[in-house]
Amino acid sequence: MYETTDLCRAIGAEPPDGEAMEPQAPAKHAFNRAVEMTMARRKAISDQRGGEYLDTWALANVRTAFLDAVLRTIGIDPDSLTVEEARLIEVACLADVKVSRLIGPYKADTYDDLCNYLDALSQWLGEYTGESE
């Protein structure tokens, strides 16, 4: 927020008596505040969904019956994929679904879910390629 002194300086006027001429730094920058609030909301959604869905994303729990059927139909042997690769395809597909929903009306959890799927995809891709732990 601008202080009176900033406005005075902008229009070439003198500030009121006793006010400092140095601008005050905001308590938190707007972008950082927005990101932190969004991250907190996304974390709450992730925690809620984790409780509802349990650990369905763990490699031992990945099930790809429909993906396998489609891969066979288009001439790709699903057994040629590792479980890690199948999970990467699944999460990428869900991120695509969330992106396609952005053309509809605004719904906060579409953005939150998209970011959460992208976070998971980023981590798992990094683990797959050896670029992250």
What is this structure's SSE topology?
Blueprint (H helix, E strand, L loop, with lengths): L3 H8 L18 H24 L11 H9 L9 H19 L6 H22 L4
Largest sheet: none
Number of strands: 0
Quaternary assembly = single chain
**Structural class designation:** mainly alpha
Gyration radius, in Å: 24 Å
Q: Taking all residues together, what is the mean pLDDT?
A: 88
User: Count of helices?
Assistant: 5
Instruction: Outline the low-pLDDT stretches.
Output: none
Strand content bin: under 5%
What form results from the Cα inertia axes? Answer: elongated
Helix content: 55-70%
Span of the ends, CA to CA: 41 Å
Order of helices and strands: HHHHH
Name a few traits of the molecule.
133 residues; mainly alpha; 5 helices; elongated
Describe this structure in words.
The protein is mostly helical and 133 residues long. The protein has a domain at 55-129. Helices cover 62% and strands 0% of the residues. It has five helices and no strands. It has helices at residues 4-11, 30-53, 65-73, 83-101, 108-129. Helix 4 (83-101) packs antiparallel against helix 5. The radius of gyration is 24 Å and the shape is elongated. The chain starts with a helix and ends with a helix. The model has no long low-confidence stretch (mean pLDDT 88).
